[in-house]
Amino acid sequence: MPQKIKLDEKEYVVDNLSDHAKATLDSLKFVTTRMQELSNMQVLMQRAKNSYVDSLKQELLSSKAGFQFGDD
Fold first, then answer.
1. How far apart are CA 6 and CA 10, in angstroms?
2. N or C: which end of the chain has fewer CB within 10 A?
3. How far apart are CA 46 and CA 52, in angstroms?
4. Helix, coil or strand: residue 67
């Protein structure tokens, strides 16, 4: 079964595309993959940031109260 792409509700057989169109499709696939990787990285960075904020809050509370809060 030939590989197809759908663009604006119309299907195209990849093998029938020009070399330029195939190269553009490869670029589109690369950019789409890279965008997903960056989105995933953003989620991980946000989780790390939240963890650091929570850790800082615990540290500040511990030093103010005079005893250790949390897992430490």
1. 5
2. N
3. 10
4. coil
* Amino acid 30: pLDDT: 98
b (16+ CB within 10 A) / e for 11-42? eeeeeeeeeeeeeeeeeeeeeeeeeeeeeeee
The neighbouring-strand residues paired with 7 are: 10
Structure tokens that stand for 47 in this block: 């989780």
Gyration radius from the chain CA atoms: 25
Query: What is the per-residue pLDDT for 61?
Result: 86
d(CA 7, CA 5): 7
Report the run of H or E that residue 4 belongs to, with start and end: strand 4-7
Longest dimension (CA), the chain: 73
